Amino acid sequence: MVLRWKAEAEKGVVVSNFQRRGWVKSTSTTNSADDAADWNVYWASVQSVKQIFNPENGMRLNDSQLINHFPNHYELTRKDLMVKNIKRYRKEMERDCHPVGERDESGNYIHLDFIPITYVLPGDYSLFYEEFKKNPHSTWILKPTAKARGIGIYLINKISQMKKWMPHGKWAYTSGKDAYVISRYIDNPLLVGGKKFDLRIYVLVTSYRPLRAFLYKAGFARFCTAKYSNDLSELDNQVIHLTNVAVQKHAEDYNENHGSKWNIKNLRLYLEATYGHEKTKECFLQMKSIIYHSLKACQTVLINDKHCFELYGYDIIIDQNLKPWLIEVNASPSLSATTDADRIMKLEVISDTLDMVVSPELGEGGGKALRALGLAPPIGDFDSLHDDPELLAAGLALPNADLPSSRERDREKEGEGEAGWRQ
């Protein structure tokens, strides 16, 4: 059986992986029920996924079909819904007296304090206003809930500055797609060479119930091209404050050779040399905990369709205290390559993703497409997150007793993991 593939916008690294496997391009041009059986693996846009899972569409996927988004992926990837689900999850953990839900003497969550203070506008405007009055000199970052690539993002430090985005000078009711989130700005970011950066981390989920999540070893840090300043006169300077490649590539000092990026391995080596092994190890453990608990926060609300998998792009910022903060989760992380190294890395992450989710039996004329909720061990540069030994040892995760542990795998070969996620 020759597999048939379909892809939106024919993303280069995705299509290259399909072609390497000898798969055949689908002739399907619509997402209607009539074309439902013409593909096995569909790398779709979120808009197409919405069409496919619309009950009125009449499309029913069969056991030999896979698609790269869960039906309501937006519960994690829309900024407002992510915040809502994490806040609910924290209350549930606290109510259930789970250790991860504990608070310190100041009332802050010890383990689940990983998103900045955030409000959804216009609904939470009065709450935001009260918080702002407590710290009138603080800086906040305003983002549309359903946009990406730095579009529509503004920094403010005065209530009057918000009038630019208020309909008719006040927050009127708007639809969900027009909503904003406003978060306390991380104004003490960790700097390298005086420049701000964030991390793009790839996470694959093959099932939410039970949770089967895998952390990719290769990721990268994205740097601003200009040195950081928290001077009020620079609030509108996106090149200083926003790490998005879509913003930085237009900067005068943008370097096309390395794309203003470091891989995670090099960043970890730098942090260890600068701050020491133990502090760096704790920082990376906290990042794994953030990813794990953000997924757990959405576990009960995500529709766990057996035909779905998802490769998320997590964006995390580290502050000067080596504390990581979750900024957002992307349902469609950019697969465009800015450098040769970037292209190779993205080719590999897609290759390993396909190896993880497509059963060899499918290409041999039988069997189901999905690997039985990912019961097979992680493949390539993916490591299990749901049963990560470090998280379990620290009491930050609960073991999936019915699933094989990643500790059974021989992943501790000489030299492996020394500059990656696990040490």
UniProtKB/TrEMBL annotation:
Identification of the protein by name: Tubulin--tyrosine ligase-like protein 9
TM segment ranges: none
GO biological process: microtubule cytoskeleton organization
Region: Disordered, residue numbers: 397-423
Main location: cytoplasm
GO cellular component: ciliary basal body; microtubule
Tree of life domain: Eukaryota
Basic and acidic residues compositional bias, start-end: 405-423
Localization of this protein: Cytoplasm, Cytoskeleton, Cilium basal body
Family assignment from sequence similarity: Belongs to the tubulin polyglutamylase family.
Organism: Palpitomonas bilix
UniProt keyword list: ATP-binding, Cell projection, Cilium, Cytoplasm, Cytoskeleton, Ligase, Microtubule, Nucleotide-binding
MF (Gene Ontology): ATP binding; tubulin binding; tubulin-glutamic acid ligase activity
